[in-house]
């Protein structure tokens, strides 16, 4: 123990002497500690205690109730999930009916939720509305009055700050419904701590868009005569009432009394395994980064350690001296990381609340147990990082250390053999995990392979150094020093490789996920185009007096005034013969010709594995598994509407125009077309009974008309475009339904809001849908990963370059003595940095692409035999990540070249 005290004193003294190196090691250990402590403190602040969660859900009440079922229900203890036996209620229960089901002495107040539209600052938009009397003490904790006062009458409203911004108003201002027939005065600003979103609060009895069976939520806050325990909750469940009880939040029932469907399954073994593997990768990364820094210290103290050994110091003493560096610097790194991480969590709490979590934290607090574990991990990581330099120093040649000679720099063959073997085992485990779709096995194989590459790196550095013979002076010396100092350069290269490989691999997977989602999306219109449709009210009207749609010329004028409109074309919809009431439906749909129908089309979701494999191989069973956000389904249009609806071009467009002009139809799916014609099924509810129409579709009357399937523009899963001649051939009618708007570019949200507002001024039954295409949000995770890999690459390159500069001082003196120019040192430093960062980046990109290919193969294997066919995950390239990663070596080289002093040292020999 005494020798450890001495070693720690030496380490403390050395840390004070080598402040720059010590600060670098402390920063590298503190950085992950900072991140982990920030995450731990933030998690603890946002992890609500049971009492806090109860306040957020039921305010100061004893419970919150919902009565949505007519029969008994079984619920999760907190009321977050339930299953009912009876049918949903069709009419909300009254306050008197609810009180009759509760114990005597109970008091309840309504708590209603829904969504509705208002006039916004830019036009018309939908926000959440709540019916709640904020003046009642039962709402304390559920809602907070920030400014002003609570609504007290039917014409008043309180808004959250987010809603006030969206609606463009403030206290004392007003808000209006879309048609401006009602307005409310804003009396105050409120906040729901559990939901920092756009919300307007009204008195329950005056709330617009009151909850109904088709939407919204109706509940009550219950002031009970006593605590509502689990037995009482189950009794109310028998009446169909769902209860969130404060007493149950604070004292939940034992697992045995919880309904089986709501019992937790315990620890997620897969998630735990993945978390452990990711933590292992993080520790490996820190060790690889900090290890070279300890190697710098051990190499610069080589003579001091040699003197200790010459005066009787054992290898154990030498190991302890170097390991003590890890303990001291690890402790400093842990302390610095914990303090900065907790401070950062406290300072960024408001930002996290409002922009990421969208709810208030429970309070300013930390996670003591987690922080203690993080501190131990930091010190342990410092010891691990110093382990290899410690054993290397203990085995050093004393005479070589005292005389300044370098020892052997050749890589041991057994490390190369072990590395190759480990890489092979890791690859085999990865492939096996991919084939079995076992994510834990797959990640374990990836880590084994990465460790194997780390062990192979010193030999690879030595092999690359042989290329220096054909290079100019500075790169040749840089390659030689990298090989000579491979004890430090190899871990630095491996650290860059690991960081870049992780960034590239995850970037490829995320890019593939986005590409797959894009492939599943089927555009209903050309990108940026819009549909303006009129929603007929379907009211019973007298025959001969049909409902009139608005003037489409005025609609087109509004579109040209508010939208980047290029052209508009009218659309119509199929209706029953003239004189039929509006609420009777008629339509036309293409029939798949006999022999082209999928035998399993009516059994989707019920087929066994063998039948699914057969269906996948049947060309008739190519079913659409995607989705569409905008579509016209079935439209009656003229030839001028085809560019706006299909984006067809050239001869394809000309042929489609001719088909419509000839009284035919245009379809997107060529399976419907046989011999240039399509069979349309006629659904005429004014002439057919519902039984015939629904139960025996094969007996529906049909009409055969000319048809053409477009092959350019939109994919095959669009709608069907009917000519007026085809509708008349079916002896049906049609009426105006709206416009298709062709645009010059993608409209902005402000332009769409203005268009919506303009249309609502004309007629409330007009609505707009714009084809935005699949979501193209750039995933910030890709840039974060790329930035993290870039920082690690710069740090590793800086460490290795600093080590090479420290060890190469004698060489620089020799260069100065033989007449080398000062620029040689700058070019040498630039070359050394380029070797480390460039080699690590190349290896990392190669490894990352291989890793991602294995992961995507595993994902694709899970759906290889399923039907309907799901789009596979394509192996895409995350160009954003690769661009950042590719630039980093250049930045590292530029920084090394600019920050290195060009003056060559000249050391005078001391006289003896």
TrEMBL record:
It is a multi-pass membrane protein. GO terms for molecular function: transmembrane transporter activity. GO terms for cellular component: plasma membrane. The keyword Membrane applies. Keywords: Cell membrane, Membrane, Transmembrane, Transmembrane helix. The chain crosses the membrane at residues 271-296, 327-347, 367-394, 415-435, 441-467, 488-510, 781-806, 835-859, 879-900. Residues 278-395 form the ABC3 transporter permease C-terminal domain. It holds the Pfam family FtsX. It comes from the Bacteria. It is found in: Cell membrane. PANTHER family: ABC TRANSPORTER PERMEASE YTRF, MEMBRANE COMPONENT OF TRANSPORTER-RELATED. Belongs to the ABC-4 integral membrane protein family. This is ABC3 transporter permease C-terminal domain-containing protein. It comes from Phytohabitans flavus.
């Amino acid at each position: 123990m005494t020798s450890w005290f001495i070693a720690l004193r030496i380490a403390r003294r050395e840390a004070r002497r080598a402040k720059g190196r010590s600060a670098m090691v402390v920063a590298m250990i503190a950085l992950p500690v900072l991140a982990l402590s920030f995450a731990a403190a933030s998690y603890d602040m946002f992890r609500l205690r049971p009492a806090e969660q109860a306040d957020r859900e039921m305010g100061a009440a004893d419970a919150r109730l919902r009565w949505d079922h007519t029969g008994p229900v079984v619920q999760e203890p907190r009321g977050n999930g339930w299953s009912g036996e009876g049918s949903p209620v069709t009419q909300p229960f009254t306050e008197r009916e609810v009180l009759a089901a509760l114990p005597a002495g109970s008091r309840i107040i309504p708590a209603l939720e829904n969504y509705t539209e208002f006039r916004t600052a830019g036009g018309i938009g939908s926000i959440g509305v709540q019916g709640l009397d904020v003046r009642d003490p039962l709402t304390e904790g559920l809602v907070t009055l920030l400014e002003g006062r609570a609504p007290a009458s039917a014409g008043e409203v309180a808004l959250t700050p987010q809603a006030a911004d969206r609606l463009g108003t403030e206290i004392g201002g007003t808000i209006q419904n879309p048609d401006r027939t009602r307005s409310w005065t804003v009396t105050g600003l409120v906040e729901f701590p559990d939901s920092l979103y756009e919300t307007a609060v009204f008195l329950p009895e005056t709330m617009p868009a009151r909850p109904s069976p088709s939407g919204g939520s109706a509940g009550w806050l219950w002031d009970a005569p006593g605590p509502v325990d689990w037995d009482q909750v189950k009794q109310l469940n028998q009446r169909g009432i769902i209860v969130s009880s404060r007493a149950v939040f604070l004292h939940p029932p034992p697992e045995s009394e919880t309904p089986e469907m709501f019992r937790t399954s315990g620890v997620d073994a897969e998630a735990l395994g993945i978390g452990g593997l990711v933590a292992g990768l993080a520790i490996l990364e820190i060790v690889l980064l900090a290890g070279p820094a300890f190697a710098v210290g051990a190499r610069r103290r080589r003579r001091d350690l040699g003197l200790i050994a010459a005066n009787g110091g054992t290898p154990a003493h030498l190991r302890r001296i170097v390991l003590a560096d890890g303990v001291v610097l690890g402790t400093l790194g842990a302390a610095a990381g914990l303090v900065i991480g907790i401070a950062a969590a406290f300072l960024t709490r408001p930002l996290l609340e409002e922009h990421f979590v969208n709810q208030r934290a429970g309070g300013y607090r930390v996670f003591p147990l987690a922080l203690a574990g993080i501190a131990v991990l930091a010190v342990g990581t410092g010891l691990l990082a110093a382990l290899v330099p410690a054993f290397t120093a203990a085995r050093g040649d004393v005479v070589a250390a005292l005389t300044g000679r370098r020892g052997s720099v050749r890589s041991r063959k057994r490390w190369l053999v072990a590395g190759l073997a480990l890489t092979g085992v890791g690859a085999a485990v990865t492939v096996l995990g991919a084939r079995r779709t076992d994510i834990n096995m797959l990640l374990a194989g990836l880590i084994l392979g990465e460790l194997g590459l780390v062990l192979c790196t010193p030999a690879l550095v030595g092999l690359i150094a042989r290329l220096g013979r054909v290079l100019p002076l500075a790169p040749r010396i840089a390659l030689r020093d990298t090989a000579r100092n491979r004890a430090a350069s190899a871990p630095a290269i491996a650290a860059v490789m690991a960081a870049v490989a992780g960034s590239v691999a995850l970037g490829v997977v995320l890019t593939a996920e986005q590409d797959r989602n894009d492939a599943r999306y089927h555009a209903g219109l050309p990108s940026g185009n819009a549909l303006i449709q009129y929603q007929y009210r379907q009211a019973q009207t007298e025959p001969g007096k049909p409902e009139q749609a608005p003037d489409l010329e005025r609609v087109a004028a509004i579109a040209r005034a508010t939208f980047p409109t290029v052209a508009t074309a009218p659309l119509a919809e199929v209706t029953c013969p003239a004189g039929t009431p509006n609420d009777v439906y008629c339509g036309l749909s293409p029939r798949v010709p006999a022999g082209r129908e999928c035998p399993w089309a009516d059994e989707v979701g019920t087929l066994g594995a063998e039948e699914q494999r057969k269906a996948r191989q049947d060309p008739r069973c190519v079913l659409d598994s995607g989705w569409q956000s905008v579509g016209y389904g079935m439209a009656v249009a003229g030839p001028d509407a085809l560019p706006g609806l299909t984006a067809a071009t050239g001869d394809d467009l000309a042929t489609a125009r001719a088909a419509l002009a000839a009284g035919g139809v245009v379809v997107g799916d060529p399976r419907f077309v046989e011999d240039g014609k399509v069979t349309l099924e006629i659904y005429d509810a004014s002439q057919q009974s519902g039984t015939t129409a629904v139960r025996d579709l094969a007996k529906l009357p049909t009409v055969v008309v000319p048809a053409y399937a477009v092959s350019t523009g939109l994919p095959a899963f669009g709608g069907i475009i009917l000519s007026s001649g085809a509708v008349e051939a079916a002896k049906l009618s049609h009426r105006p339904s709206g416009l298709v708007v062709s645009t010059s570019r993608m409209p902005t949200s402000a332009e769409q809001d203005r268009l919506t507002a303009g249309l609502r001024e004309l007629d409330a039954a007009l609505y707009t849908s714009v084809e935005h295409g699949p979501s193209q949000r750039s995933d910030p995770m890709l840039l974060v990963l790329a930035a993290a890999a870039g920082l690690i690459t710069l740090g590793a390159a800086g460490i290795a370059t600093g080590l090479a500069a420290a060890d190469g001082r004698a060489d620089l003196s020799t260069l100065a003595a033989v007449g080398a120019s000062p620029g040689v040192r700058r070019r040498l430093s630039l070359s050394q940095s380029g070797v480390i960062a460039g080699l690590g980046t190349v290896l990392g990109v190669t490894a990352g692409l291989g890793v991602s290919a294995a992961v995507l193969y595993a994902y694709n294997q899970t759906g290889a035999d399923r039907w309907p066919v799901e789009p596979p995950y394509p192996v895409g390239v995350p160009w954003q990540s690769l661009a950042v990663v590719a630039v980093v070596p250049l930045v590292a080289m530029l920084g090394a070249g600019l920050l290195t002093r060009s003056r060559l040292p000249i050391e005078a020999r001391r006289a003896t």
